[in-house]
Specification:
It contains 14 helices and 19 strands. The chain has 468 residues and is an alpha/beta fold. The strands form 3 sheets. Strands 1, 2, 3, 4, 5, 16, 17, 18 and 19 form a 9-stranded mixed sheet that branches. The protein has an 8-stranded parallel sheet with strand order 6-9-10-11-12-13-14-15. The protein has a two-stranded antiparallel sheet with strand order 7-8. Helix 4 packs parallel to helix 5, helix 5 packs across helix 8 and helix 8 packs parallel to helix 9. It is globular, with a radius of gyration of 21 Å. The two termini are 39 Å apart.
């Protein structure tokens, strides 16, 4: 009986640990078996549908553990909905996102989580989970954290930045970390000294420094490093693990490396924009620089080498996108004449897997490390492995057929994100997604979208698997 079986033949299967020419048998939405190609075991596989992957890579679907669909920010909303954003993710070979539900000050965690479930349910093309942004630490919040961990929301984001919006002071951070040390949750930290940055913003604007490039100048690398150091020491006092999001500066990488050398359970994430873009982009004339305003900000080019090094030495474990798109027309333009009013964020959920493959081509990382930082590590970090992030019997059949030789030019004309520009416009890349399966269902078929809103399901998560 071959009902519902798919066979992927002849590709190079790449996971975080192995590369093998193998045939992959999929049944009932899961990986049923693997066998080395052209062996009797592989020849015995039968299926209704066969995909020829000769000359292609067969890789796990990407896991993007940091996205912001429909995020309210600065009087507007991120331009991708859960429908458009997850469809674009699929086009880029990502089959799972973990988005951020937001607790508003004065409201409970549950209220925020319910609101995000309502936005996502029935609208996603791929599977999704949630982290919880904690903006208001009090006794009720701390109790709710325990309940959320039990039901599969096992990570909580706090902000040392954005006073008056998401900001937590050191006491609130310590309390949340102490709670996560007890309940098994993982604190994710936006590490920038927001109090000091606000002073520098005010002073820059008073001097008439209003262009987008000043966004990068006031959000100093030293203030990212200082906050990273402080977060690490607070976590150490609490006996809690720590995950620092969107690390952009070499000084912050050095703080993480030092902590890890001390044996502390401290982890770091960076994003493609910090690996491929720089302050040169922020300085583009005619307000074009606003397209590249995000926080932490883009840094001078010399930081890139240290970020790549951190990925190779495992001082940084994950590459996520922090996908938070705002259109240039009507949204980024809110900050003309005042860089502090430019919505913070840029689009990238569709570009991550391809950009990281280009890094393989360029010799920054190996093929297996590509899969590790984009698929396996984020799945392990956030309690979804081996259901997500690998190709092994029993895993969800989230599989990408990837053509490592195809060439493409990145452009807003051809991307699928709901935003009017590309942060990587005109960039030539080698490698492209050809076919994407989500739980065995083709959502991209030979460069055509064959998925639909509502296929993606909510995925509860276990606790961080680096700590078990």
């Amino acid at each position: 009986m071959t009902t519902g079986r798919t066979l992927i033949r002849g590709g190079l299967v790449i996971t975080a640990s192995d590369e093998i020419h193998a045939d992959v048998l999929i049944e009932d939405g899961r990986i049923a078996a693997l066998a080395a190609s052209a062996t009797p075991a592989a020849e015995a596989f039968t299926a209704e549908r066969t995909i020829d992957a000769t000359g292609k890579y067969v890789i796990p679907g990407g896991v993007d553990a940091h996205t912001h669909m429909e995020l309210p920010f600065g009087g507007t909303f991120a331009s991708d909905t859960f429908e458009t954003g997850t469809r674009a993710a699929a086009w880029g070979g990502t089959t799972t996102i973990v988005d951020f539900a937001v607790q508003s000050v004065g409201h409970g965690l549950r209220e925020g989580l319910d609101a995000w479930h309502a936005k996502a349910e029935g609208n996603c093309a791929i599977d999704y989970g949630f982290h919880m942004i904690v903006s208001d630490v009090n006794q009720e919040t701390l109790k709710e954290m325990d309940l959320l961990v039990e039901e599969g929301v096992t990570s909580f984001k706090q902000f040392m930045a954005y006073p008056g919006v998401f900001y937590s002071d050191d006491g609130q951070i310590l309390r949340a970390m102490q709670r996560s040390a007890e309940n098994g949750g993982l604190i994710m930290m936006h590490a920038e000294n927001g109090i000091a940055i606000d002073v520098l913003v005010e002073q820059a604007l008073a001097r008439g420094e209003t262009d987008p490039r000043y966004h990068g100048e006031v959000r100093k690398a030293l203030l990212e490093a200082e906050a990273t150091h402080r977060a690490i020491r607070l976590a150490q006092v609490a006996g809690a693990p720590l995950y620092v999001v969107h690390v952009s500066a070499m000084e912050a990488v050095a703080e993480l490396a030092r902590a890890r050398d001390e044996g502390l359970p401290v982890f770091g994430e960076t994003c493609p924009q910090y690996l491929f873009l720089s302050t040169d982009n922020l300085a583009e004339p005619d307000f074009e620089g606003s397209k590249y305003v995000c926080s932490t900000p883009l840094r001078p080019k010399e930081h890139q080498a240290k970020l790549w090094q951190g990925l190779r030495t495992d001082d940084l474990q994950v590459v996520s996108t922090d996908h938070c798109p705002f259109c240039f027309v009507g949204q980024k333009e809110l900050g003309r004449g005042d860089f502090s009013k430019i919505p913070n964020g840029l689009p990238g959920v569709e570009n991550r897997m391809d950009l990281l493959h280009q890094a393989v081509v360029d010799g920054h990382i190996t093929r297996r490390r590509w899969i590790e930082i984009a698929c396996a590590n984020p799945a392990r970090m956030f309690g979804m492995y081996p259901k997500k992030g690998t190709i092994t019997p029993g895993a969800d059949a989230d599989v990408v057929i990837y053509d490592p030789h195809a060439e493409q030019v990145v452009s807003a004309e051809t991307h699928h994100m709901n935003v009017d520009y590309s942060a990587y416009e005109g960039r030539r890349l080698t490698g492209r997604v050809e076919t994407v399966l989500s739980r065995g269902v083709p959502v991209i078929t030979e460069r055509e979208y064959t998925g639909h809103a509502g296929h993606g399901v909510y995925t509860p998560r276990s606790t961080c698997q680096y700590l078990n």
